[in-house]
Amino acid sequence: MSAEKPAETLAGRADWLSDRNLQRLLSALGENGEEARIAGGAVRNTLMGGAVTDIDIATTTQPEETMRRAKAAGFKPVPTGLAHGTVTVIAGGRAFEVTTLRADVETDGRHARVAFGRDWKADAERRDFTINALYAKADGTIVDLVGGLADIGSRTLRFIGDPEARIREDYLRILRFFRFFAWYGAGRPDAEGLKACARLKDGLRQLSAERVWSELKKLLSAPDPSRALLWMRQAGVLSLVLPESEKWGIDAIHALAKAEADLGWTPDPLSRLEAIVPPDAVRMKELGRRLKLSRAEADRLVGWALAEPVAAATSDAAFSRRLYRGDLRAIEDRLRLAFASARGRAAKDDGALVEAGSYSRLLGFLEKWRRPVFPITGQDLRELGLKQGKALGSLLAELESEWVESGFKPDRDALMARAAEKISGSIP
């Protein structure tokens, strides 16, 4: 008879498991026949080698009892979602989200009415994906009720139970399917899950713009979202939530993600979005309005669309003049996308290799560039006898233009002499 396989454990693999406040909270919630376990993302990320930022807890205690026990243990309970069984417990300056075991009684495609319970399997089965439905006991022992460990091992993203049923409960799960695939999946997406997303994609129209953009932004923040975007396009989901990408293509994003990884650039969801939509200011303004982007995000997209492309052969002097006059963020976005594109083509195209080298030089120049300060002001011109008004503004602008075109070289004395000549009329 073969020996029983030992239970999988997080012990020795999760520094956060030894957090004294976490252990005290789990102990308090588990007294007198109750039980509490770490749930979801912390378990998943530890097993998959990812960072753990949030620790969620599932418990058999009812919300009011959760609050009573947390307070008795010296922690601060905050009733952040009592209707859904959720209490946020502040312990040692860290927030733990504690939720009572529950089952969905009624759903409408986005929100659910829940019933609290004590059945761990029922609580696991109401979750979205198998890799998100793992629990860990206080000693690190993993409890897997839906096959999540095997799916983590193969990096398979799979709905729990019937994919269509899970999606009809909450249509946001379609976007979550692709977002989690971008972060954790390998190979092809689960076929049944992909088909269900394609069949039920119209349900996405029920979602708020804020939720759609939140999911897209998280997806676009993955190390390389290109595979997920490809399957989104195949399923018709990408065109529905981001119609601007439909006739533009998503090929550029893989080269951008590779450049970010190779060169140490921080993955940037806005830059990735720019890689898959056309640089059309009108359409970018509409995209920002439709998805309710923040003012800064919307302005950045429009600025990028308005900025002229940067030619690889641009000289340092010409580039410096453009930087002085232009939107630095927009120019950098244009330049990074152009560099990543050339870099992606360089393996098969010697011309692209040269182009990539030129863009690399310009990016280095931009990184070190500091905006020169125009040496004279309107007050200086007034001291030369010119009165405040249109003529003063015109002369100041003319002098600044000459200064820029001459490579920012004339100093204050030279510019004042030039101004005096123009004011006296000796130079038209």
Describe the structure.
This protein is an alpha+beta fold and 428 residues long. Among the domains are: 1-154, Beta Polymerase, domain 2 (2-Layer Sandwich); 307-368; 378-424, no CATH class. It has 21 helices and nine strands. It has helices at residues 20-29, 41-47, 63-72, 120-125, 148-154, 163-169, 172-184, 191-199, 209-220, 226-234, 237-241, 252-263, 269-274, 281-290, 295-306, 316-325, 328-345, 350-368, 378-383, 390-405, 412-424, and strands at residues 36-39, 55-59, 76-81, 86-91, 94-100, 102-107, 112-116, 134-136, 142-144. The radius of gyration is 29 Å and the shape is elongated.
Q: What is the assembly state of the chains in this entry?
A: single chain
**Count of individual beta strands:** 9
Let me know the average pLDDT: 93
Structural class: alpha+beta
Largest sheet geometry: 7 strands, mixed
Count of helical regions:
21
Shape: elongated
Tell me the series of helices and strands, N- to C-terminal.
HEHEHEEEEEHEEHHHHHHHHHHHHHHHHH
- Please indicate the percent range of residues in DSSP E strands (runs of 2 or more): 5-15%
* CATH topology annotation of one domain: Beta Polymerase, domain 2
Instruction: Kindly report the spatial arrangement of strands forming the biggest sheet.
Output: 3-4-5-2-1-8-9
Query: What is the highest CATH level, the class of one domain?
Result: Alpha Beta
